Amino acid sequence: MAMKRFWLAAGIVAVALGITAFFQNTALLAPAATERPVLLAHRGLAQTYPSSGVTDATCTASRINPPEHPYLENTLASMEAAFAAGADIVEFDVHPTTDGQFAVIHDWTLDCRTNGTGVTREKTLAELKALDIGHGYTADGGKTYPFRGKGVALMPSLDEVLARFPDRRLLINVKSNDPREGEALADRLLKLPPAQLSLLMAYGGDRPITVLRARIPTLLTMSKEAEKRCLIHHLALGWAGLTPEACERQLLLIPSNYTSWIWGWPARFTARMRAAGSEVIVAGPLVGGDGSAGIDRAEDLTALARPIPGIWTNRIDRIAPLVQVERR
What we know:
It holds the Pfam family GDPD. InterPro entries: GP_PDE_dom, PLC-like_Pdiesterase_TIM-brl. This protein has helices spanning 2-25, 76-85, 125-129, 158-164, 179-189, 194-197, 206-215, 224-237, 267-275, 298-302, 316-326, and strands at residues 38-42, 89-96, 102-104, 169-174, 200-204, 220-222, 251-255, 279-283, 310-313. By secondary structure, the chain is α/β, with parallel strands linked by helices. The protein has two domains: 38-175, TIM Barrel (Alpha-Beta Barrel), CATH 3.20.20; 223-328, no CATH class. The strands form two sheets. Strands 1, 2, 3, 4, 5, 6 and 9 form a seven-stranded mixed β-sheet that branches. Strands 7-8 form a two-stranded parallel ribbon. Strand 1, helix 2 and strand 2 form a beta-alpha-beta unit.
């Protein structure tokens, strides 16, 4: 008899928890979406390449798709083009220089896409700015180099980006796990007016990002470790409609093939994260060790569950017009 009462009580609890999880996370009770997704342009408007088989050692400039526009990643012109196309946020990469500046370039070494050699952060800003950043781009295995000679002096500094876009949202990618880089970047960003600082976000290695969060508590940040903590805690608590502390003030870049594991996706989860001061952006699927691609094609956009909180794209010129049409 006692065992029957135990199982009856357990069944009642299970049903109650299931009802709670349903009402806290069902899209049926979510508010209707009234705004378009936030659009994040990865490296501005850049040359794209097939993402399959790409590793940290792959020279992506040597395998670009046939060019459809004249812009090179991480340049002022590419950022301006991305904003003009409809981007709300532009992402770019930074490396420290030997003379205490930050250069805007993705690669750890110069040999892939420039006419220079060696480690990027072992150069002065002047040495880096003298390089041709279009030197290594080819779409036909080296038969032609359509941007060679066109990228001389186009590598900007962080200061130049901040000066050119004082009223725009920017995402800074710290390309190391060195906490000293977080200190140096915090020193620079804390010199900005509060209104401009409020528009910035940063992501990268856990150690420099931890420093940035401590130095600039209002800054939205992301690292792989921080996002993992947030999503694991949310998996444990989100069924009850609770937002873990680990999810506060985070930039969450969610691969599109992971969204089915998130309680309340998309509308309820997005609302909770925004209430916690966080931004939710959907990237392309994470497959194996190749990393997560962007939402770059019409079919990628069509496959996403609505409402879409934000979109990470390498082709803002393609995606922004489709989003605008959707919202009409």
